[in-house]
Design goal:
It contains 13 helices and 15 strands. The protein is α/β, with parallel strands linked by helices and about 550 residues long. The chain has one domain. Strand 4 and strand 5 form a beta hairpin. The longest helix has 27 residues. It is globular. The protein starts with a strand and ends in a 31-residue tail after the last strand. Its main location: nucleus. This is DBR1 enzyme. It comes from Himantopus himantopus (Black-winged stilt).
C-alpha cells in the first residue's frame, strides 16, 4: 500500500492535503494512509491557541478547525503523533489516542494501532530529562512551566512500549533517536546544519529515550521530524543470538510543511491484502495497557519504572499470548476502532472571534469509553481528583494557620498569583537562539512538488549500511557518504511569551453533547526546533 509521511505540518492541513492530491494526480497513484510526525497543531479555537507553546506572533488559527467542525474531511486516513508545538489541552483529552476529527487519528502519549495488517506505533512529545521521570500531572489552564512540560516524554510511556514483543512495522517519534546521525550521511548533514556539529560529535543530539526504543523495538521504518531537515539513515541492528534473524531499520526525518520544501515522502509498504480498510486496535498494546495500568501516576514527583534491581517484586510487564487472546475475546475479535469522534469544544468562527476565551480541563467521551471498555484509569479524571484533594488539604492547612495566628495577630494573606516576575523569561527553555553566523543561508534546491518525470523514491535514500555497537565510540570524522535527499538550511527557533493562566474547573463532555531580559545563547540543541526566522511561521 502507498503511505505518505509528513514532517511538521504546523496546522497547514489544507496545504498538506492539496499537495497529496497533486502528487496522486501527477503520478497516478492512490494514497492509502498519511502519517504525520508531530507539530500537527489540532487547534479548534482561540483557547487552544493559548495552550500552544509558540511565540504570540506564530499563534494563527490555520485550517484544522475546518476539519474539526465538519466543514471539510481529510481525504485520506491520517494518523499523527504530538510534537512540541501543539494544542496540548486538546491532545491531553486523548491520552490513549482517539479521533481529533473525522478520519484524523491521534496516537496518544504513546500508542500502537494496525492498518491493513501493518503495525504502526509512536510516541508523542520531545525528551527533556528533568521531566522524564514525572507523571502526567499537567492540565489546562497551563502556566509558564506546564505549557512546556505537558509535551515532554515520560518514562512510563517508554516503559510500556518496551514491553512489546511482536514486530513493529512503522514507528514515529517527533525528535530524532540519539546517535541515528551516525548511520547516514553525517558529512552532508553537518554541511547543511553546521551548528549540529558539537552535539553530533559529543553524541548528545536527539532523544536518548527514542534511541532506547529504537534498539528495543527494531522497527522496519522509523520516521521523525522536529529538526526541519530531511535526513535518511540505515541502521543494522545487532542480534542477541545466532538463531535471531538480523534486523534493520530505515530511518527518515522529514522537513516542515512549507512551499518549496520536501516535506512529504511516499513509500510502498507490504500489507495484508485480506485486511479491511479500517484502523484497528492492536491486541498486544491493549494487553500492555491493562498490565501497566497500576503504574499510572499523575504527580510531579520523580519516580522510576520497575526494574530487576531487587527493589521491585515485578519488573517484567510484557504480556502472554493468553492475555492477548483475552483482549481479542473481549472485543469478539473485532479490533476496529469505533468512529466515535465527538465535539468537545466550540469551533472557531471567523465572524465571531473570542480572544478572551479561557481553556478548560475536559474529559473526552472517547477516553471515557475506551477506559471503561478495557478497565483502564482515565488519566484526566485522576488528575481532577488529585486537584480536588489538594484543594481540600490546602483549605484545611489554611484554617490551621489562621487558628495559630489568632494569638499573634493576622498573617499576611498569600496572593493567589505569583507577583514576582523577575524569574520569568520570554525564552522557551525547550528552544534555543542560534548563532547569527551559523551559516543559515538557504541551500535548498528541492521542491515540494517532485518532478513529473521522477516520482518520489524512498528506497533511493538508503544505500549505506553500518553496524555499530550499543556503546558507541563517537569520533569527529565524517561518516561514509550515502545517497540522501538534499537537505535544507534553517535557523532561529521559537520563543514563548505566554503568561500564567487562571485556573478553571474540569469540564466533562457527554457523549452526545456538541461543544459550541536578556537573551542568552545556548549551545545544546537536542530539544530544539530549527527554522528560519521568517519561514518558521506556521502556514
Amino acid at each position: 500500500m502507498k503511505v505518505a509521511v509528513a514532517g511538521c505540518c504546523h496546522g497547514a492541513l489544507d496545504k498538506m492535503y492539496e499537495t497529496l492530491e497533486l502528487l496522486q494526480r501527477r503520478h497516478n497513484v492512490r494514497l492509502d494512509l498519511l502519517l504525520c510526525c508531530g507539530d500537527f497543531q489540532a487547534v479548534r479555537n482561540e483557547a487552544d491557541l493559548r495552550c500552544m507553546a509558540v511565540p504570540a506572533k506564530y499563534r494563527h488559527m490555520q485550517t484544522f478547525y475546518r476539519y474539526y467542525s465538519g466543514e471539510k474531511k481529510a481525504p485520506v486516513l491520517t494518523v499523527f503523533i504530538g510534537g512540541n508545538h501543539e494544542a496540548s489541552n486538546h491532545l491531553q483529552e486523548l491520552p490513549y489516542g482517539g479521533w481529533v476529527a473525522p478520519n484524523i487519528y491521534y496516537l496518544g502519549y504513546a500508542g500502537v494501532v494496525r492498518f491493513r495488517g501493518v503495525r504502526i506505533g509512536g510516541i508523542s512529545g520531545i525528551f527533556k530529562s528533568h521531566d522524564y521521570r514525572k507523571g502526567h500531572f499537567e492540565c489546562p489552564p497551563y502556566n509558564q512551566q506546564t505549557i512546556r512540560s505537558a509535551y515532554h516524554v515520560r518514562n512510563i510511556e517508554v516503559f510500556k512500549l518496551k514491553q512489546l514483543k511482536r514486530p513493529i512495522d512503522i514507528f514515529m517519534s517527533h525528535d530524532w533517536p540519539r546517535s541515528i546521525y551516525h548511520y547516514g550521511n553525517k558529512k552532508q548533514l553537518l554541511k547543511m546544519k553546521s551548528f549540529f556539529r558539537q552535539e553530533v560529535e559529543s553524541n548528545t543530539l536527539g532523544s536518548p529515550a527514542a534511541s532506547e526504543l529504537l534498539q528495543h523495538l527494531k522497527p522496519t521504518y522509523w520516521f521523525s521530524a522536529h529538526l526541519h531537515v530531511k535526513f535518511a539513515a540505515f541502521m543494522q541492528h545487532q542480534t542477541n543470538s545466532k538463531e535471531e534473524l538480523p534486523k534493520a531499520t530505515k530511518f527518515l526525518a522529514l522537513d516542515k510543511c512549507l512551499p518549496h520544501r520536501d516535506f512529504l515522502q511516499i513509500i510502498d509498504i507490504e500489507h495484508d491484502p485480506s485486511a479491511g480498510d479500517s484502523l484497528e486496535y492492536d491486541a498486544e498494546w491493549i494487553a500492555v495497557l491493562k498490565a501497566t495500568n497500576s503504574l499510572v501516576n499523575v504527580t510531579q514527583s520523580s519516580w522510576s519504572m520497575p526494574e530487576n534491581n531487587g527493589l521491585h517484586a515485578k519488573w517484567d510487564y510484557s504480556v502472554t499470548e493468553e492475555a492477548i487472546k483475552e483482549v481479542l475475546e473481549e472485543l469478539n475479535h473485532n479490533l476496529k476502532i469505533p468512529c466515535n469522534f465527538t465535539l468537545t469544544a466550540a469551533c472557531y468562527d471567523p465572524s465571531k472571534p473570542q480572544k478572551q476565551v479561557e481553556p478548560v480541563h475536559t474529559i473526552n467521551p472517547q477516553t471515557t469509553e475506551f477506559c471503561a471498555q478495557f478497565g483502564l484509569t482515565d488519566i484526566n479524571d485522576r488528575i481532577q481528583q488529585a486537584k480536588e484533594e489538594g484543594s481540600v488539604r490546602g483549605e484545611r492547612e489554611e484554617e490551621e494557620e489562621e487558628e495559630d495566628m489568632d494569638s499573634t495577630g493576622s498573617a499576611e494573606e498569600p496572593s493567589e498569583y505569583n507577583t514576582d516576575n523577575s524569574g520569568l523569561s520570554s525564552i522557551n527553555p525547550d528552544e534555543i537562539m542560534l548563532d547569527e553566523d551559523g551559516g543559515d543561508e538557504d541551500l535548498s534546491t528541492c521542491s515540494v512538488d517532485p518532478s513529473p518525470d521522477h516520482p518520489p523514491d524512498f528506497s533511493a535514500s538508503f544505500s549505506d549500511i553500518r553496524i555499530m555497537p550499543d556503546s558507541m565510540a563517537v569520533s569527529s570524522d565524517d561518516a561514509t557518504d550515502s545517497t540522501n535527499e538534499e537537505l535544507e538550511k534553517s535557523g532561529v527557533s521559537d520563543q514563548v511569551e505566554e503568561k500564567s493562566l487562571n485556573e478553571r474547573p474540569l469540564k466533562r463532555i457527554g457523549g452526545n453533547e456538541n461543544g459550541n531580559s536578556g537573551i542568552k545563547k545556548i549551545k545544546r540543541r537536542n530539544q530544539a526546533i530549527y527554522a528560519a526566522e521568517d519561514e518558521d511561521k506556521p502556514e
